[in-house]
Structures are given as C-alpha cells and as structure tokens.
Amino acid sequence: MRRRDAVIAWAGGLALALLHHDFWLQGPRGAIAGALPVELLWRVAWMLLAAAWLWFFTARVWRADEEDAA
Amino acid sequence: MNDAAFWSAIAIYAALVLGAGWLATRRASRSPEEYFLAGRGLGSAVLFMALFGTNCTAFVLVGVPGLAYHLGVGTFSVNAPLVALVVPLTFWAIGVPARRLARDLGALTPAELYARRLDSRAVGLLLFAVYTVYTLPYMVTAVDGAAVTLSGATGGAVSSELGGAAVLGVALFYTSLGGMRATAWTNVLQGALFLGFMLLAFVLFGRHVGGDRGLFGAFERVATERPDLYELPSTGLFAPAAWSSWSLAISLTVIAFPHMLVRLMSARDERAIRTSCRLYPFALILLWVPAVMIGVFGAVAFPGLEGKESDGVFALMVADAFPPALQALGFVAVLAAVMSTLDAQILTLGSMLTRDVIDPFMPNRREGRDVARGRWFGVAIAAATYALWRLGDDSIFSNAAIAFSGYVTLVPTLLLGVRWKRFTASAAIASILCGNAVYAASLWQTGANAMAPGWGGFLPVFWGLAAATAAAVGVTYRRGD
C-alpha cells in the first residue's frame, strides 16, 4: 500500500512538472467569453491540481515518512 | 493623500504590531529557545501565516504589477504555479527533518543545526557568512522601498532617511521585545492585511477600469485593447532553458532563506507544517492573481509607462481609484509586507550572530544571556542595514537580485545535511564554495544579470546549483568511509 501510494504520488508530481512547461499555449490564444485569459485560467487550474496532489502527498507519503521517523 | 486617514492608519498599525511584541515579551524572556524559536510551539494557523507573511515581500504588491504591466499574465505563469508545488515539497524534504534534528540536537538556528549535525564549526560559520552576504542586500531593498513609499505618500513631509529609520525601528522594537513569537503574531496581522487589501484592490480597480460592465468589463477591455498581455511570450525568460532555470530559482530559493527555515524549526509538530503545505497553493492564488491582474488592468488604465516606471502602477491605482481611507490602507499594506519579512530577517541574523559566531568563543557563558545578546545583535543587524542603505551605492539593488538566486546554491547542503547520513562537513563546505564560485563565474558571463540566459541558454542559478550538487555528492563519496 505504502509503495503504491508513493508511486502514484511521484508519478503525479512528474506529470505536474511536465504540464508546467505549457509551451503549446505560447502565442495568440484568444480569450474565453471574450474576456478571460486562457493562459491564466490554465495556470490557476494547474495550481488547484497541485493543491489536490499536495493533499494526497501529505496524507499518504508524508505520514508514512513520519511513522518511519518515529 | 488625506492626512487624517493616513496618520490614523499608521498609528493603528503601529499600535497593533507593537502591542503584539509587548504581549510576547514575558514568554520570550524565559529562555533562548522561547526567544529564538517561540519555544518550538507555533501551531498550524500562526505557522502558516508566519511562513506566508515572511515569504511574500512588498515585491509581490509593487514589483509584480510592474512586471505584469509589460509581460501580462505570463508573469503569473513563470512565478506562482511552481512555487505553489515545490515550496511545500521543500518544507517536507528539508524543513521537516531539520525540525526533528534541531529539536534532538538542541539547535536554535539553521547554521547551528548544520554545524552540530556535521560536527563542524566551520560549516556553521560558512553558512552564517553566506546567509549574511545574501540577506543584507535584501533587507536594504525592503527598507528603501518602504522609505520611498512613505516619503511619496506624505508628499516629502517625511524624508526618505527618516522613513527608513522609522520602518526599521518599529520592526526592530517589536522583534526585540517578543522574539520569534512576536514576529509570528505580527505576521498573522500583516499577512491578513496585505492579502485582504490585494483582493479588495483587484475588485475595486477592476470595476474602475471596467466602467459600467464592472470587473468583467475590465477583462474585456484588456482582451480588446491589449490582447498581447493575455499571451505567453516565447523569448527571454520564457524560452525553455531560461524558463526551467528560473523555475528552479524561484521555487528552491524559499527554503534556503534562513528566516524561512527557522520558522519551520519553530513548528509545534509536523501536523502544523502539513497544514501549511496544504494551504500554500490557495494563498498564492489569492495573492498572485490580483497582483498580476492589477498590473494588466494598469496597462489599459495608465498606458505609456516605460521600463521601471511601471513599478508605479500600484501607487497610480491607489491614487486614482480609491477613496482616502483605502489609500491609507494601501500604504499600510505595503508597509506590512515589508515588515513581515524584515522582522524575521533581523531576528534570524541576530540569532545566528549570537549562537554561531559569538557563543562558540565563550565556553563559560551563561546560555540565559543569549536572549539579551540576541536583542543587541538584532540592533546591530538593523544598524548595519541602515548604514549599508545610506552609504552603499546603487549596486546594492542589483545585488539583491543576485542574492535571490544565490541562496539556491545552499540547497544541496541543506537537503543532504538532513537526509543523507553519509554526508560530511567537507562535502558541505565544498558544495557551498564550488556552487558559489560557479554561480559567480556564470554571473560574470551574463554581465552580473541573474535573470539573463547564459551558458546553454540557462540562467546562472542553474550552473550554481549543478556545481553545488556535484561537489556535495562527489566529495561525500570520495571522502566517506
């Protein structure tokens, strides 16, 4: 279970790191509803994903690490 | 600016932070551990606000809108997201074991922790030296920013010299009174103040720019008049190699600030650090989206600002769009952002001067006297900052940008020192010296510009970190037995 959680967490972290390099969004992308910047919305969505990932990481991998240290 | 509103806001703010310092005085005087680390007892809410308040400087309020004025929403992309992910990870990777070890070894400062862990006074002194060289220019820019803002807000009635002295004096006073606990409590107030103001400013300024269509109208105006500000640029800092190395710099530098690491060492338990990690991304979204969009809205509201003139967007917004009471609040928000970092820096450098430089040469000292010494050394650090600000030349400001990336060269030592049992003092010293030497050489190649792409298109920070890592690992394997 611990090993599976760690693999899921680090694979998710790697995916987030790759998605951070969003060079496919470079150049004119227009605006959603004629007003909202695509790039900014994508970045905020990425940060919310990162927050969810951190929640998983702190609940599973970190707790296991804490138990080992104790 | 309305004088009555301005001075009332200043008086209320000063009374609150000084009151927090006074409240913390009695507990701070009990022992060095209470004074320097709040008795290792910061709970979740206070720890989070202390970390967030210390991490966010006036640069986010004033400098980020200035950058976004020219670069648009790309300013957000290159800075905020990776910080939201990697900074909490470094809290786990370095901060958590550092807290455990500091508690077990009885260490009260980051330099003392690594000196004891690696059983080397030289490591402690070297860390103190590097921390000081990189932190003092930072403090100078903060004092300068607050002084210029204060002088501007009073129409020159308060001189720049007096303004800088007042900001340093107030921060020093409550820090000296209550130590870590006072700075953490004031950070709660300061963080709430500048975060709340930025959210309010984002909505009010957006409605001002958007006219009848309100905040949404402001977004529409930018999409119509300056669509380029909604695009992600592809050159300079946004080219792949520069983007990657800047991401390294901005996300790894935070844990290497001594005033951040010492806050993690003050945590009551790991649960408090975990909670801070979970909240960090949300707080960054709430602060950075308004900061960037204020700059973008400013580009259509105040067109034609050239170069560094765009740093005036925040002041222009406050003067143009807000009533007197909010103008005063805007100034206090900048002051709060400056002081929430400055107080932690004064305390941390003062504590390291006490524990890592002076104490080892006083074997018969009474440890209880460290609180008094810490207070006096805090005064010395503040005086040195003021002197450097008044006597130094303009290069001090470019040095602050260099320092920001320079901290990253310490990360291999900070990480391996608490996570790798085999890591040695020799490896730590080699890592710090090699990392900084290569970083300096790379800076020389870019004309002392830490944000200009150098060898291979990477920023100097990349090469400094690579050299520091190689030296740390190489020397450990070569000398370890």
Helix-strand pattern of chain B, N to C? HHHHHHHHHHHHHHHHHHH
* Rounded mean pLDDT score of chain A: 87
Got a strand count of chain B?
Answer: 0
Net shape of chain B: globular
What coarse outline of chain A follows from CA principal-axis ratios? Answer: elongated
Characterise this structure.
The complex is a heterodimer of chains A (70) and B (481). With 70 residues, chain A is mainly α. Helices cover 73% and strands 6% of the residues of chain A. Chain A contains 2 helices and 2 strands, in the order αββα. Chain A has a two-stranded antiparallel ribbon. In chain A, β1 and β2 (36-37) form a beta hairpin. In chain A, α1 packs antiparallel against α2 (38-69). The longest helix of chain A has 32 residues, at 38-69. The mean pLDDT of chain A is 87. Chain B folds into 2 domains: 3-397, Sodium/glucose cotransporter (Up-down Bundle); 409-481, no CATH class. Helices cover 79% and strands 0% of the residues of chain B.
